User: Fold this.
Amino acid sequence: MQLTTVYYELTAAEFNWKLSEEKEIKAWGFNNSLPGPVIKAKKGDTLIVKVKNELPEPTIIHWHGIRLPASMDGTGESQKPIMPGEEFIYRFELPDAGTFWYHSHHNETIQMERGMYGSLIVEDELDPMVDEERVFMIDDMKLTKENDFTRGNFFKRWAERHDGREGDTLLINGKELPTINVNAGQTERWRFINSSSARYFLLHLQGRKFKIIATDGGLIEEPVEASRILITPGERVDILVGPFEEDDQFEIESLPYNRMTFLKPKRQSFAKIVVGKQKASKASIPAQLRKITPLADRSMPINRNVKLSVGPSLKNGIDFLVNNEIHANDKPVHVGELQIWEVSNTSMMDHPFHLHGFFFQVLERNGVAPEYISWKDTINLAPKSKVKIAWMPDNRPGIWMYHCHILEHHEAGMMANFEVVDPAVGELHKGQHHHCH
Ligand code: C2O
Ligand code: CU
Ligand code: CU
Assistant:
């Protein structure tokens, strides 16, 4: 395969966007489109993206799931914000195939809510041959009657900080309840990305079976048949669907999931699928998609604990904590030293834990091995639960982070920075790192 350099330009700006015939919003996003353009490349390519900021405030762009150098990670620790009128050039290689995404990593509870995200699809020769591929970016917006993003009174804001912001305008690729036409007799690959602030998306196709083929970090070993799968904010899941019968109709829906908030779980519909004429299929799905080498044995000792919790706060009513701190600084890790972490959630609500820049494997969830091995960068922690994960800091020293991907929880403190240290060089920054928010 020929390796190439792929070049994109993204201009962040405010623009009018129609969510439906009735609803038009002042969106913030890329290239006047919501989501931003699909960035497509092949495994091994070098991606160059020039980001121009035409918003009235600074921004930073993060490349969720890409194993890139720390300096390109797009956080307040790794770069200066891109000021209004300025631009920044991101440049990195794409070492993995899979479904990734880019999004604002600055004032996220506003910027992402208003639409600053897009998908980044990295293809590979190993990808199974399908008849059609679609990317579905899941989102929701909480809009006023005037279709703006104004926040409510003190109590509403407090609830939003506690629960994360969920709204009733349910979107797939920036559209409210779109109709999607597919052909009968075909096998399609659907790549789901949950780009919402806080919504838990429990994917269901009104009972139609599908096959899970990939998670955050690309293909799993073998297709897994399912009729539902939970996709939390930040997570990705690729499924194979079909072949469907001619004239079949169904909805892409989310089943009720109780993440223990004030918000009541509901069944909700995101899109309508209409199956048209029969078409010949060229799909070919191997029984084995790829081989994933285990990073560690389940019995290996834990070398770090990360505790997610909530606690009372005099100033804010409630704080969201990592190891009892808000906006924490965790100990450094060394290049080449296998990490076995236990991430626990002692709170009474769910949190999707996200690690920047590296994939991990789940060894155990509450002491039980997962059903299948996969590469993850975001994993849900149900109330009073824990996961044991393994990951390897490869030679990409610098400041990295992990956080809860419910944007309001991240903002309220449930995050930590830590350094990956090349032992030959030593720590770059001694002492406290400062988080910018
Ligand atoms: Cu989607 Cu800090 O990440
Ligand atoms: Cu959280
Ligand atoms: Cu942060």
